[in-house]
Each structure stands twice: as structure tokens, then as C-alpha cells.
Amino acid sequence: MCVGLVACSSGGGPSATSGTSSLPAELGGDQLVSTALTSANGVDAGAASGRSLNVPKGWTAQVWADVPDARMAVWTPDGKLIVSTGKNGTLEIVAPGTGGQGPRVATLATGLQSPQGLATTRQGSRDILVVGEDSRITTWTYANGAISDRRVVIDNLPTGGHGSKMVAVDGDSIVYNVGSSANRSAGDRTATPVRATIAQIGLDGTGNRTLAVGVRNGEGLSIAPDGSIFTAINEDDNQPYPFHDDNPYGGKVQSYINDHPNDQISRITPGTDMGWPLCVPDSRGKPDGLNLGYVNDPEFNADGRALDCSRIGTTMLGMPAHSAPVGFVFTRGSTLPAALSDGAIVTAHGSWNRKPPREPYVAYTPWNDTTKSLGALRVLVTGFQNADGSRWGRSVDAVPGPDGSVYVTDDVAGLVYRLTPPR
């Protein structure tokens, strides 16, 4: 039985994906199969009614829960899904139904400050929920479908611009991002406090420190099987042309902007500099997107004096430009099929300034234990964007469920989908 991503033939089943895709052919989206969305009993499909998603052959696709403005998601130890709602200011908890019924959705917390990132951990005898709000990181005690004992770990973090705070738990510490103030702002590197960073703080609120700079908007955060920290980064829109050739150096070249600069997935260690906005990821001659070097940004670092781009290392994996990765989770220890159980799932929100827009999608990248690195992306889910570039839905996060399905949030349709491989 085939449960891989795109390595299996679509054979005589339903037609492969239809319409014009904005994703490179190397991601394998043409091998996905258009699959009609069904609805769990009692769940209103809303904007997804009558729609299909493109998934691997044999997978089923279901509208599983109604959660308006659904953003990030995390499973609780007792098998419930907590979903943040950003601008709605709430946390919702989704309890799987019984007897063939759809899940029950209830509000877990209200009045929060644009809650986004979620993570769970255990501290002593307590299960802890970590929440990234707009200007602060908070923790709560979780038990039996309820939260209590709210505690502010850190407050007065920078807001505005890319203000969403994402979180991951690394042992006794919380890793979080502070996004850039704007699309392109060299001043973020010298601001007080510095912006466009990845930072770390103890669960008890002590030891706050910056781990990485030059991270324009590192919304995707997860801990790899080797214990290291990874981030998935939203790179520039409207990047000035950085090469000396027939195109105008430093000019607006739409054909270049459409596919550059690559969004980034890379390991973060103390002292990492991801280069933004002084160094631009360079994918020339790298169709697999692996180990991308950098070139000087023509506006902020044309002569290389602000930062030597040859000395900051490489980006482990480049995503298609304007993918806007948000969800990012390693899958080791999950109950997903073998083809998905040792790598990372990354969820792209899609972007606006490409022509046509980059479509939202979910992809998988395999983990290599020998090199302790991630491999080339292979697309897992598409179908949220119409051929004319309009969207009926927009994927945000995708997390493995305890039942071996992948659960995908959608903040445009306000839904959670359950995507299930063949058993």
C-alpha cells in the first residue's frame, strides 16, 4: 500500500491536481490527487463546501472542525487539539467526537493579546501550555480540558510589523521569535531591543538571551531529533535585484521577485546570523534548494562592508520564495506512516506580491540522522488557491495527530482539516 508523498504513481485513480500551480515542478505537486473534502458529522464546511484538496493517492480529506481564524495548533496529553485564533484573542479546544459525531469545540481562554504560537511540556507533575502573545510569552497549567495559573514569562516584547510570537519548548527553556518591524529594515539590527531575532528564555522567566540575528520573520520553530533548534523564515518581498548582469542592479525585476529570495529553513545555534537584510539567499544552480549561500544586498550592503556574506554559513534548505512558512514541526515519535515519520512538516501560508501569488501548501522534508540535516521538500497538500490566484482557504499549521492523521488549520476558511493516509 502506497503512503508516500509523491513517489507513487497516480495510476488509474482520480486526476492529478488541476489548474495552474505556482509551485516549482521539483516539489512534485503534479503527482498529488484531487480529493473531495467530506465533512465530519455536524460540522459546517463553510467556504470548503464542494471543494477538494490535492493530497497523495489513497488519502482522505475531511473538514474536521469549525474554528474561525484558526492559526496554530498543538495536541494536549489527553488527546485534544488546542488552536490559537490570533486577532480573535482566544484559544479554542477541540475534543474528538464519539459515536461517529464530529468534534466538540469550546473556548479555552478569551481576551488574549493576538495569541499565535503554542507548545506543551511537562514540568514536575504539571502539564504546561506555552502561548506566544503579541508582546509577551505566557504559560498555563493544563488539566482535563481546562487551563489555570496563568504566568507571564516575559513581557514588553516588540510589536508591530511582523509581531506574531511563535514558541517551541527546548528542555527547560522556551524558544521564541521577534519578527522584523518592516519588509526591509537594516535598522532592526541595531534597534533597542534588536528585532528580527530568535531568542530563548527559561520557563521560570530567567536567562533571556538572543540566539540568532538577521532572521526576518522566523515564525516556524521546532526542535530537531538531535536536540537542535530549527526555524522556518519568511524572507523579503520585492527584493532589489542583487546581480551585476543584463538586469538593472538594485532594480525591481518582477521575474526575479517572483522566485527570490528563497524562504529559509535552517538550524539555529547561539551566534547564528541569517543575514537579513544585508545578505540575500542565492539559489542559482541549486534546484533542490539545499545549502544555499548568499550574495550582498544591493541597497544595504552593496560593498560587503556591513556584513561579509561569505562568512555567515549557508541556509540548509531554501523554500520557494513567498511561501511564507508558518507551521513547522518535526515528526519523529508521531504515528504517521513511515514515509512521513522522520522529518519535518512545514506549512506555507502563501504570499501576495508574486504574480500569480504563491499558493498556500503543506510540504514534508526528510531528516538525515547521519548528516543531522533536512533534505529537499516534497509537497503534501495543495488546492487552497484557484487558477486565477484567488483563495478560498489558506493553510497555517499542520500537526500530526494521535490517530496517524495530519491536522491542518486554515485561517481564511476558519476550519481544521483531517487528512488521513490509507491504513
Plain-language structure description:
- The chain has 423 residues and is mostly beta strands.
- It is globular.
- The chain has 1 helix and 30 strands.
- It has a single domain, classed as Neuraminidase (6 Propeller).
- The chain has one helix at residues 254-259, and strands at residues 33-39, 52-55, 60-66, 73-75, 81-84, 91-95, 104-109, 118-123, 126-132, 137-143, 146-154, 167-170, 173-178, 197-202, 209-213, 220-223, 229-233, 263-268, 272-273, 279-282, 290-296, 315-319, 325-330, 343-348, 361-368, 373-374, 378-381, 395-400, 406-410, 415-420.
- A 6-stranded mixed beta sheet has the order 2-1-3-30-29-28, with no helix packed on it.
- 1% of the residues lie in helices and 38% in strands.
Work out the helix count. 1
CATH class: Mainly Beta
**Beta fraction:** 35-45%
CATH architecture: 6 Propeller
Number of DSSP-assigned strands: 30
What is the straight-line distance between the termini?
Answer: 8 Å
Helix content: under 10%
CATH superfamily: TolB, C-terminal domain
Mean pLDDT: 94
Number of domains: 1
List unreliable stretches of 5+ residues. Answer: 1-19
Set down the secondary structure blueprint.
Blueprint: E1 33-39, E2 52-55, E3 60-66, E4 73-75, E5 81-84, E6 91-95, E7 104-109, E8 118-123, E9 126-132, E10 137-143, E11 146-154, E12 167-170, E13 173-178, E14 197-202, E15 209-213, E16 220-223, E17 229-233, H1 254-259, E18 263-268, E19 272-273, E20 279-282, E21 290-296, E22 315-319, E23 325-330, E24 343-348, E25 361-368, E26 373-374, E27 378-381, E28 395-400, E29 406-410, E30 415-420
Parallel strand pairs: 1-3, 15-19
Antiparallel strand pairs: 1-2, 3-30, 4-5, 5-6, 6-7, 8-9, 9-10, 10-11, 12-13, 13-14, 14-15, 16-17, 17-18, 18-22, 20-21, 21-22, 23-24, 24-25, 25-26, 25-27, 28-29, 29-30
Domain Pyrroloquinoline quinone-dependent pyranose dehydrogenase beta-propeller: 54-371
Protein name: Glucose/arabinose dehydrogenase, beta-propeller fold
Pfam families: TrAA12
